[in-house]
Design goal:
The chain is of the alpha/beta class and 237 residues long. It contains 9 helices and 7 strands. Helix 3 packs across helix 4 and helix 7 runs antiparallel to helix 8.
């Protein structure tokens, strides 16, 4: 499924600028364009982790913080990292409304995480890994900071496999969604970039192979919402 990404600028500066531009309307766009299914996807990702009260969890590419808050409800202490500072500022504002098990937000680059080895019991990434310049390096960093048998849950968009669903999905995804996004947010370039970034990204078995190459075991994929989203899970050996 993976194609050349030569036409996609995934340099750090380009990704930061793109998501900084859409940050003020990011939550509205996510809920609107997914029909609020993004809330359910994040809950399922969090629920796939078996967490104790004192578990240390990393939510990487945290965006405006919704995944970190979904994990927080499951227990544990959540560190939420992102390298887009306007996104992180919005996330920290959300976290400040909570007095118990408040996630801690900090600046973090997926390709060079500011943590020591074996630091976390679990990690989550939601709709962020397709934006990194080096997928293998990002997965290796996640593996490095997880303790032995530490769990990982990754959400990413996917192309539905049933032909009857694929055609209308592609019509919405490639033609309608970017137009709606620009109506809501004039700087919604992230949603014009979205279809291309998803179509070139490794999916299902191919992404599982990337996880295994980075050192994860028990890696598997699970389709959500008809295969428009995949939940990937695995563990550090």
């Amino acid at each position: 499924m993976s194609q050349s990404n030569a036409n996609l600028d995934k340099s750090g500066g380009a990704i930061q600028a793109m998501f900084a531009g859409v940050a003020p309307r990011y939550d509205l766009l996510n809920h609107l364009l997914s029909g609020a299914l993004d809330i359910s996807w994040r809950r399922k990702s969090a629920a796939s982790l078996e967490l104790t009260e004192d578990a240390r969890v990393l939510d990487l590419c945290c965006g405006t913080g919704d995944q970190a808050l979904a994990v927080r409800k499951r227990g544990g202490q959540v560190i939420a990292g992102d390298f887009c500072l306007p996104m992180l500022a919005l996330a920290k504002r959300k976290y400040s409304r909570h007095s118990v098990r408040r996630p801690q937000g900090l600046a973090a680059d997926a390709l060079a995480l500011p943590f020591g080895d074996d630091r976390f019991d679990a990690a989550t990434v939601s709709f962020g890994l397709r934006n990194v310049a080096d997928l293998g390096a990002a997965l290796a960093e996640l593996r490095r900071v997880l303790r032995p048998e530490g769990q990982i849950a990754i959400l990413e968009f996917a192309l539905p496999e049933p032909p009857w669903l694929r055609a209308p999905y592609l019509l919405y995804f490639q033609r309608i969604l970017p137009v709606l996004a620009k109506l809501v947010s004039p700087r919604g370039s992230a949603y014009s970039y979205l279809p291309s970034s998803v179509l070139e990204f490794p999916q299902r078995a191919e992404f599982v192979e990337h996880m295994e190459a980075a050192g994860f075991h028990k890696a598997r994929s699970r389709d959500l919402s008809g295969g428009t989203v995949c939940l990937y899970s695995g563990a550090a050996p």
